[in-house]
Amino acid sequence: MLVLFCFLSLRKQPTFFVVVLTDIDSERHYCSCLTFYEAEINLQGTKEIEGEEESGLIPPAEVFAPKSLVLVSRLDYPEIFRACLGLIYTVYVDSLNVSLETLIANLCSCLVPASGGSQKLFSLGAGDRQLIQTPLHDSLPVTGTSVALLFQQLGIQNVLSLFCAVLTENKVLFHSASFQRLSDACRALESLMFPLKYSYPYIPILPAQLLEVLSSPTPFIIGVHSVFRNDIHELLDVIIADLDGGTIKIPECIHLSQLPEPLLHQTQMALSLVLHPDLETADYAFPPPRTALSHSKMLDKEVRAIFLRLFAQLFQGYRSCLQLIRIHAEPVIHFHKAAFLGQRGLIENDFLTKVLNGMAFAGFVSERGPPFRVCDLFDELVAFEVERIKAEEGNPPKMIKHVRELAEQLLKNENPNPHIAFQKVPRPTEGSHLRVHILPFPRINECRVQELLQEGLARSQGAPSATRGDKKCVVPAGPPVVSIMEKGSTVFNSAQRLEVVRNCISFIFENKFLETEKTLPAALRALKGKAARHCLTQELGLHVKQNRAILDHQQFDYVVRMMNCALQDCSSSEEYSIAAALLPLTTAFYRKLAPGVSQFAYTCVQDHPIWTNQQFWETTFYSNVQNQVRSLYLTAKDDNHAVQLRQKVREYIKYQHNIFIHVLIVS
User: Fold this and answer.
1) What region holds the UDENN domain (predicted)?
2) Is 113 exposed, middle or buried (0-12, 13-18, 19+ CB in 10 A)?
């Protein structure tokens, strides 16, 4: 498989690039490839040219074959691997007096420190002095300058289009004449998704023999060499990005959902201020001195900080929509998508709906849903900084200040110790790859490598363990879910309208039917607002005693009429909480039709489409289970009471599960 990735056919300077392989367990392996070109010479004094042999002295080489040094690791340290492979090549090409077996054994026996900002100086034994610097947090991506480079290659609008494409599970294909640029672009695009993680095929460098993978029905992020540009233009459902030309091609058959406003405009403006700092002062009659761009690594982190702020705004209050439906043996957490979209005012938003339904967000809920775990920068941002982000919308200087604060933290994560020790790695002599006569790369003695490797491991057995215990804590809940748009005053949610609903219900149960007739039209109009519908369920619940409430005929008709009004919009624009709250009330209120014959309210409201919505029943089931789990753990004060509660929970869950299965069978 590696041969497909490594070998090229042209003679040029040694090249280096990193290939990412994913195994069956979704674990990534990073294959660092250093390719050089070796002369094909017959040392017996003959050389072969197109089947003909000419005897004589050893002539200068005319035929060159590629040869690759490949290092496969689960660790993602491309610059360290570049230096190590480069050192092995230097020892070979400059004929240094160092055993290649020794270099390889020292490399394989090097113990990498755990994450958390640890450092380790090491040497392969060829006069080198190298340093491994681990990031502070494993969860934060390490990007170097790849994100800034991607924006430099494609521009703001094109990168935002690709960002939306991967979040909404579209196929994205990069092509470039540089293998390393392909790897960097794929790394950058994936890192912009943080805190989400990409879970579909991720192949930064796809070999020619596997081009048929591009016809896969699943989403992907893939890179191919530009020599195949004519083969990929026939793909009809793939978004193609030309890194060298700075363009992207979106097929007509793809409807690309965009970020919701005002987040899209705010993100574009922030990126413009960071990437083009002179834009704001370009029209000034007396402009200030030219603003210099941040250095490439800092610029990279500033761009990433903007996307971190974006996700904090996009997922604000997400923890209030998590439903914990099992604790032991492993927590099982469900996300109430409809409630989140409804409270954010984005029920009809195509972009966020696709994001919440995607595999990346499912992984986000599974990984970040538990309330007690290791926290990182995103958890702090979404919990404590959202209000600050909103306050900075119309104040570019404050926004830039916050972006730079976040960028400093991202930069510190990658380089926690900026004053690092001096590093030295010998490089090959200038022009060494052009030498006329050079011996082929020698065959490695595997037995000798194993011997040296065992010796190195034996020496390191007494070294302290490179483990680090991450500190777990209670995840801050943060602010509640609020609408993404600024809300103006609304008559339906005013205190006066809620009072109308309360008065109408009071008149019904006090048998004041004349007053009921006067207030009922206003109460029905008020029920068009969500707050009034919540008020209705609360007020009706106050009149239920021991799960039953018998009504006379007029009371029953009024209550059913108000229930029907509240249920009208639940299937399309409500977050199901109203229907879930009314569900037990419909089985509580009833009237006597004849001796031994009763009519319950559910018989008069059962035609609403919400009752045939499978997602509603799933969400209601999970919500009820969470409430029972909470009651078990929050109110149990003694063992006997705890046992009784657990038994009630099991019975209740079994009862709810049977109802749920029955509804699925009927529907």
Assistant:
1) 1-375
2) middle
- Residue 432 DSSP label: G
How far is the C-alpha of 323 from the C-alpha of 359, rounded, in Å? Answer: 18
Q: Is the dihedral of CA 497, 500, 506, 511 positive or negative?
A: negative
Question: CB of 105 within 8 A of CB of 456?
Answer: yes
Look at 61 and 483; give whichever has higher pLDDT.
483
Of all residues in the chain, the percent with pLDDT exceeding 90 is 29
Per-residue pLDDT tens over the stretch 321-341? 888 777 676 778 888 887 788
Nearest Cα to 186, choosing from 76, 81, 293, 268? 76
Q: How confident is the model at residue 3 (pLDDT cuts 50, 70, 90)?
A: very low
d(CA 136, CA 468): 11
Domain ranges of the chain: 15-43+60-136+424-444, 145-249, 263-280+295-414, 490-665
Q: Could you tell me which residues are beta bridge partners of residue 122? A: 130
Handedness of CA 15, 16, 17, 21 (dihedral sign): positive
Q: 3-class DSSP state for residue 34?
A: strand
Mean pLDDT score, 571-581: 68
**Long-range contacts from 470-473, C-beta under 8 angstroms, 24+ separation:** 470/374, 471/374, 472/372, 472/373, 472/374, 473/372, 473/373, 473/374, 473/375
Rounded to an integer, the average pLDDT of 271-297 is 79
| CA 307 – CA 301 distance, rounded (Å) | 10
CATH number of 145-249: 3.40.50.11500
Mean pLDDT of 470-485: 79
Instruction: Collapse the DSSP code of 419 into the 3-class scheme (helix H, G, I; strand E, B; otherwise coil) and give the result.
Output: coil
pLDDT digits (tens, 9 = 90+) for 444-457: 888 888 888 888 77
End-to-end alpha carbon distance in the chain? 50
Q: How confident is the model at residue 394 (pLDDT cuts 50, 70, 90)?
A: confident
* Token code pair at residue 391: 């306050």
Return the closest-CA partner of residue 281 out of 293, 289, 271: 289
What is the pLDDT at residue 291? 65
Q: What is the mean pLDDT of residues 246-273?
A: 92
The CB-based long-range contact list for 447-451 (8 Å cut-off, 24+ gap) reads: 448/99, 448/101, 449/101, 449/104, 449/105, 449/108, 451/105
Asked if 38 and 64 count as a contact pair (C-beta separation under 8 A), the reply is yes
Strands (E), 62-165: 64-73, 119-122, 130-133
